[in-house]
Amino acid sequence: MVKTIKGIAASDGIATAEAYLLVQPDLSFDKKSISDADAEISRLQDAISTSDDELTKIRDTAKESLGEEEAQVFDAHKMILADPEFTGAVEQQIKDQSVNAEQALSDVSNNFISIFEGMTDNAYMQERAADVRDVTKRVMAHLLGVALPNPALIDHEVIVVAHDLTPSDTAQLNKKYVKGFVTDIGGRTAHSAIMARSLELPAVVGTDSITTDATEGQTIILDGLNGAAILDPSDEDIKHYQKLAKDFADQKAEWEKLKNEATVTADGKHFDIAANIGTPDDLQGVIDNGAEGIGLYRTEFLYMQSEELPSEDDQFEAYKKVVEGMNGKPVVVRTMDIGGDKHLSYLPLPEEMNPFLGYRAIRISLDRQEIFRTQLRALLRASAFGKLRIMFPMIGTLQEFRDAKKVFEEEKVKLVEKGVKVSDEIQLGMMMEVPAAAILADQFAKEVDFFSIGTNDLIQYTMAADRGNEHVSYLYQPYNPSILRLVKHVIESAHKEGKWAGMCGEAAGDNIMVPLLLGMGLDEYSMSATSVLRVRSLMKKLSTADLKELAERAVNESITNEDNKKLVESYINK
Question: Has 504 been annotated as catalytic?
Answer without folding.
Answer: yes
